Amino acid sequence: MKFFSMWFYQQTPELQEKVRGLVKNGQLELINAGWSMHDEACPIFDDMINNMKIGHDFILKEFDFKPTIGWQIDPFGHSNANVRISAEMGFDAWFYARLDNSDKGKRTDERTLEFVHIPNKESLGSETRIFEHVLWNHYEAPNGFNFDMIDGDVGFIIDPANEDYNAPTRAVELMKELDDRIQHYVTDDILVLFGTDFKYENAYWNY
Questions:
Q1: Rounded to whole angstroms, how far apart are CA atoms 207 and 190?
Q2: Residue-by-residue pLDDT tens, the chain, 207 positions
Q3: Domain ranges of the chain
């Protein structure tokens, strides 16, 4: 939220009001909303709480909104304390990318990439819980669909009059990739990300 808030306060009142309207209408969803993405494995618990509070105070003040979905795609490790604090803050779900390769392999085979985490069950009981979803391919786009100037993957050419028209073929290729993924999740709805670090350097190219 740090960089979003900096950008927001540099805009005209008219544009700020448009952004508020997008949030209110559900066209722009604010997730996680900590002041920064804290590394779960390092800070003590009050650092986690304060970091989240500063970001959430900004969101509540400007948008009258409280995030309930968490997003931890790049911290190097996920602590039980962070899960507990997040659940007690009112988060319903966390989506994250990094976990031990052997654990991810086991979860992939057993279709447990989605699960309900009950932290500190021995002391807290089972009321404190949160849904967790492990991302399929870190936070990368599907293989062959990184539409960025530094990757060169072929985009969708949707005009049949174009000699490079390829939309039907590319659609089949994408569906094959997603059909493989969905075999490893319990639900029929999967999250598909596009981009990763240092992507979208040329907005016009991606558009």
A1: 23
A2: 888 999 999 999 999 999 999 999 999 999 988 888 777 655 688 888 888 999 999 999 999 999 999 888 888 777 888 888 899 999 999 998 888 899 999 999 999 999 999 988 888 888 899 999 999 988 888 988 988 888 878 888 999 999 999 999 999 999 999 999 999 999 878 889 887 888 877 777 777
A3: 1-135, 140-207
Q: Which of 46, 57, 64, 74 is catalytic?
A: 74
pTM: 0.84
Integer angstrom CA distances of residue 53 from 7, 33, 35: 19, 9, 8
74 is annotated as an active-site residue: yes
Longest dimension (CA), the chain: 66
Architecture field, domain 1-135: Alpha-Beta Barrel (3.20)
